[in-house]
């Protein structure tokens, strides 16, 4: 477990209940006792519910439901248009309140923050007392109800919130590492962080029904089972699941830096030989895109403009190009940027052998605004990027490489070894 000089840390995951809907309700007192939802494309019934207040949820309405379905379930639903910049402002206000209690606050999403309050106990009291003070302060200043999961590391704090603090009356729950076996292990696998409906189905087929079933499987055995289902690439995934089920997480609460965004984030690569085949070059383009996007995600930026620069052989008379394009929305999502990169590359590549290639994202802005275009598939794409980043940050960037990088053209494994300090 996370220990600091032999002492266990105290980590919170503070989650805002029905965040967007709560902000709207707080500012529209007339709707206090009405079912309220915030939805995109309010004009069209095809819009998606971004947040539903507890009253609306009692009608069976949930996040990512179609607006039409929601109105069928609850015709008197008050539907409001999202005001994203305002939610971002409120979220920053809430972060500032947390920072009164500790300088170690990590923004996990617009409505979830990790707090390391280990060094604050002698100032503000025991963990429950701090959690209650935080709840009162946030509620009185913003009208938002906060739920707090408490444990000794981030993953257990997150689990404490998701499984218990969100469900009980106090909105506070402590999951000590010593109780993992008695409290967490009897829970069904679908309650585990990072396990969706598809993964649940896989676990069912593997005969694993509770989180304890995962935790108690020796890791080498779990890796074997995963390989049989998902192929050779799945070792890391098996390890992440196993560590989560056992509540193991050594990652520190990392406050984000509020620096102004840099002008651009880019990576360039000189190839070990001339690359001629489009698929070879594409492999490199994808690797570079992944590096750039991952850098952006780690730093909390997204870019509106992508540029590709390419130098072709021969050296004596090098040709090449450097071109950029604006994307429909600022992004740091690997696949979205990669599509733009390919478009640019094929438009300007003259088919000469490629020697050096670079990719840059510019016109950077804060990625909290990402939520502006919140749709279910994007949420999933982001979640996948996040998990990939998480694994790479922990195990090194060669830990997960896309299948194409394992070909002879791929440089990702090589690069991670050669320039391991690249990301730091
Ligand atoms: Mg929430």
UniProtKB/TrEMBL annotation:
Catalysed conversion reaction: DNA(n) + a 2'-deoxyribonucleoside 5'-triphosphate = DNA(n+1) + diphosphate
Record-marked site positions (Substrate discrimination): 20
E.C. number: 2.7.7.7
Catalytic site positions: 112
InterPro entries with a match to the protein in the record: DNA/RNA_pol_sf, DNA_pol_Y-fam_lit_finger_sf, DNA_pol_Y-fam_little_finger, DNA_polymerase-Y, DNApol_IV, Rev_trsase/Diguanyl_cyclase, UmuC
Domain UmuC, first and last residues per copy: 11-196
Subcellular location: Cytoplasm
An annotated GO cellular component: cytosol
MF term (GO), any: damaged DNA binding
Keywords assigned by UniProt, alphabetized: Cytoplasm, DNA damage, DNA repair, DNA replication, DNA-binding, DNA-directed DNA polymerase, Magnesium, Metal-binding, Mutator protein, Nucleotidyltransferase, Transferase
GO biological process: DNA repair; DNA-templated DNA replication; error-prone translesion synthesis; SOS response
Positions annotated to bind Mg(2+): 15, 111
Domain of life of the organism encoding this protein: Bacteria
A Pfam family that the UniProt record links to this protein: IMS_C
Main localization of the protein described in the UniProt heading: cytoplasm
Record note on cofactor: Binds 2 magnesium ions per subunit.
Similarity field: Belongs to the DNA polymerase type-Y family.
Oligomeric and partner information: Monomer.
Record function comment: Poorly processive, error-prone DNA polymerase involved in untargeted mutagenesis. Copies undamaged DNA at stalled replication forks, which arise in vivo from mismatched or misaligned primer ends. These misaligned primers can be extended by PolIV. Exhibits no 3'-5' exonuclease (proofreading) activity. May be involved in translesional synthesis, in conjunction with the beta clamp from PolIII.
NCBIfam families: PRK03103.1
Protein name: DNA polymerase IV
Organism: Paenibacillus agilis
Origin organism lineage: Bacteria, Bacillati, Bacillota, Bacilli, Bacillales
Gene: dinB
